[in-house]
UniProtKB/TrEMBL annotation:
It comes from the Bacteria. This is DUF922 domain-containing protein. It comes from Flavivirga aquatica.
Amino acid sequence: MFCFLSVQDEPVLSWNTSRKLSWVDFKAKPDNSSSAVAITASGITFGYSIKKSSTKVLSFTSEVYAYFYPEDSWYKTEQVNDHILGHEQLHFDITELYARKFRQRISRLKVSNNVKKELQGIHNTINKEVSLMQDNYDDETNYSRNIEAQAKWKLYIRTELKKLSKYKSVN
């Protein structure tokens, strides 16, 4: 039996359909040297266990979580508003979208002796994809300043989350 689980020592918030972020969730001290007015730290954590005989993998299970990290997230009180909070929420929603994509890809895996390598490969790919989307989101919305682009992204992410609702985070 082989087991892998990434464990965080800091407090986290799990993504949840019915709970949106609020500024009180952002606990870190703002970086006043940064031009950013808020930073959302979020990420995907996953773990798996593999049951095997002496020669072959018999089965595997996995868990995937979309987390928000309050102790690494911050905002500049005098410069933020509800619109910017919505922008930050969408960063967390993008993390959830990729957690769902991760679960979907895992669901397509067949039990084999290569499953550990395949799981790690999917994890690496998902991390690259989510990072790229987060960057594209900030670029296209100009960090929330482009209101029209922000609205398009909000609709796009909502639609994509619905498409993958079968794989949503369960809390």
